[in-house]
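Hi support team,

I submitted a single chain yesterday and got back a structure, but I'm not sure I'm reading the token output correctly. Could someone confirm the output below corresponds to the sequence I sent? I've pasted both exactly as they appear in my results page.

Thanks,
R.
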Amino acid sequence: MASGWRRAVGSVRSFIGNSMGGLRGGSNLASWVVAGTLAYFLWVKPSQDLKRQQQEAAAVAAASDPYRYVEKRKPIPDPQDTGLIYGNKNRAKKLDD
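Hi R., thanks for writing in. Yes, this is the structure output for that exact sequence:
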């Protein structure tokens, strides 16, 4: 029975090793470093640069027009009791007033 779980553990280790490229030791680590570096420079860094450029362009556009309208306070809510008035729903209330 002891050999059964050892075999299972060995199979799992073998599967994990093969799924990571089958390399062991320093060459495995080096290949992951190279892959991570390539992924950073091909995908992560360009998207960060694009986002930064868009933010800078938005800041320049916002600073270029000093007379643009900026909402400085929250709008006052509509004080209707029953919401929007459609049809004859509120006719009795209007007749009382």
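A quick pointer for reading it: The mean pLDDT is 77. Let us know if anything else looks off.

Best,
Support desk
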